[in-house]
Amino acid sequence: MDETAVEQLGAKPLQPYVARIDAMKSKGDIPQVLAHLHLATGDAGLFFGFGSNQDFADSSSVIAFASGGGLGLPDRDYYTKEDDKSKDIRAKYAAHVTKTFELLGDAPEVARSKAAKVMDIETALAKASLTRVDKRDPYKLFHKVDLKGLRATAPEFDWDSYLKIAGL
After folding, report:
1. For residues 92-117, average pLDDT
2. Residue ranges covered by each domain of the chain
3. Which residue in 3, 24, 37, 96 is a FRET match for 138, CA 20 to 30 A apart?
4. pLDDT-derived band of residue 87, with 50, 70 and 90 as boundaries?
5. CB of 53 within 8 A of CB of 35?
6. pTM, 2 dp
7. Phi, psi of 88 (to 5 degrees)
8. Distance CA 22, CA 17 (A)
């Protein structure tokens, strides 16, 4: 990696993505923006992961696959445990997120506020996420649904727009 070039570029490579997010007018814009970000990042697991995988019930088929995501820390336990070490890790992560917002140009108090919102969102996602043990159970991972079922599972999310942009 060319660290000198990375340092010289700073946040410039991120600006198109930040601008797309900043241009959002309502939560109704989330599916379109998320689809673009998933495509641009190779599906970095923003809010959820989405891609293709073998059908657990029929290994000769490849199907669309959605999975939990959206966590900056390794798994749900980092957000839910109340021991001192976990609290320290969360505090350090929040400081990292704050610094990231500052590097993108936010004033320190704005960056702290945004980082707190990120932590709130990620904590809510973590609480809804599978435990480490559950993630090893294929029966807890595989819930095959068609598009109608997907729409019923998350009716406020515009799956049609997301899938169209994602090329599916």
Report:
1. 96
2. 1-69+133-168, 73-128
3. 37
4. very high
5. no
6. 0.82
7. -65, -40
8. 9
